[in-house]
Amino acid sequence: QVHLAESGGGLVQAGGSLRLSCKASTSVYAMGWFRQAPGKERELVATTDLNGDYTYYADFVKGRFTISRDNAGRSGYLQMDTLEPEDTGVYYCTTAGRMASMLNGEYDYWGQGTQVTVSS
């Protein structure tokens, strides 16, 4: 069992920035960020592997968000810049043993989520 803990959410004005953190109880290979807005399905925002050799961004965050990992493989970060009201939602951290699994929707563990609210 791997425990994931997200932090860094909050209320920010449009155009502002937030940095989300995800801390795992052990090293994990692939780490991804999802978000879920009220009344909408959960959607993949970004994912990366242990060394950052492969990253994926959803089109709606390209150029605005940056995903990164620490060297120990236990933490991941999502730097969110130029935030828009449409970015509002609960952001979840998830892990997978392989990048292919992450991209195929085969996730191992989820965090409890952190709320991001962007005001216009």
The tally of helices reads 1
Q: Compute the separation of the termini in Å.
A: 40 Å
Subunit organisation of the chains: single chain
| Portion in beta strands | over 45%
Weakly predicted, low-confidence segments = none
The overall pLDDT average reads: 95
Rg from C-alpha positions?
A: 13 Å
Order of helices and strands: EEEEEEEEEHEE
Q: Using DSSP, what is the number of strands?
A: 11
Largest beta-sheet characterization: 7 strands, mixed
Secondary structure topology:
Blueprint: E1 4-7, E2 10-13, E3 18-24, E4 30-36, E5 43-48, E6 55-57, E7 65-69, E8 75-80, E9 89-96, H1 99-103, E10 109-110, E11 114-119
Parallel strand pairs: 2-11
Antiparallel strand pairs: 1-3, 3-8, 4-5, 4-9, 5-6, 7-8, 9-10, 9-11
Question: Can you describe this structure in just a few lines?
Answer:
This protein has 120 residues and is mostly beta strands.
Description:
The protein has 120 residues and is mainly beta. Helix content is 4%, strand content 48%. The chain has 1 helix and 11 strands. Strand 4 and strand 5 (43-48) form a beta hairpin. The mean pLDDT is 95.
Descriptive terms for the model:
120 residues; four-stranded antiparallel beta sheet; 11 strands; 48% strand
